[in-house]
């Protein structure tokens, strides 16, 4: 890569999005946009590892043509192969992050509204709060007695 701007600059050197890995394949291994899309589809499939192995030779040949050999080529391939287990398109990741942040904020600051919305969103009444992580934390029922009395500390001297 000639430019100082790399595909992973905005994620501090870690490829998080499919678009970044596609750009790495284009820049480092000379993939065409079509080949990069084939790589993206291979990473997202159930048999990602076997499909990635088929693209391995193409990635290494392209990397060698761009002066990337040995350990550096291995590192690039390992990063691309490892990515296939967790990568998302950037648009999906951003939408999911927004949903998670909003849900966490509502749960923290407006728990009653959060629980009501969660119950309303269930496809059937049996899929309400009982099937969510929030139900896993069973709390004892609130006590309905008088406030605690102050303890007497006769043994303490002033």
Short précis:
With 158 residues, this protein is an all-alpha fold. It has 2 domains: 9-83, no CATH class; 90-130, no CATH class. The chain has 7 helices and no strands.
Give the helix tally: 7
What are the secondary-structure elements, in order, as H or E?
HHHHHHH
Mean pLDDT: 78
By secondary-structure content and strand pairing, the structural class works out as mainly alpha
Share in helix: 55-70%
The count of β-strands is: 0
Content of β-strand: under 5%
Indicate the radius of gyration in whole angstroms: 26 Å
Cα(first) to Cα(last) distance is 76 Å
Morphology? elongated
> Uncertain segments of ≥5 residues (pLDDT<50)?
none
Subunit organisation of the chains = single chain
Outline the biggest β-sheet: none
How many individual domains? 2
Question: Can you walk me through this structure?
Answer:
- The chain is mostly helical.
- The protein folds into two domains: 9-83, no CATH class; 90-130, no CATH class.
- The protein has helices at 18-29, 33-44, 48-65, 70-83, 90-109, 111-120, 133-136.
- Helix 3 (48-65) runs antiparallel to helix 4 (70-83).
- The protein starts with 17 loop residues before the first helix and ends in a 22-residue tail after the last helix.
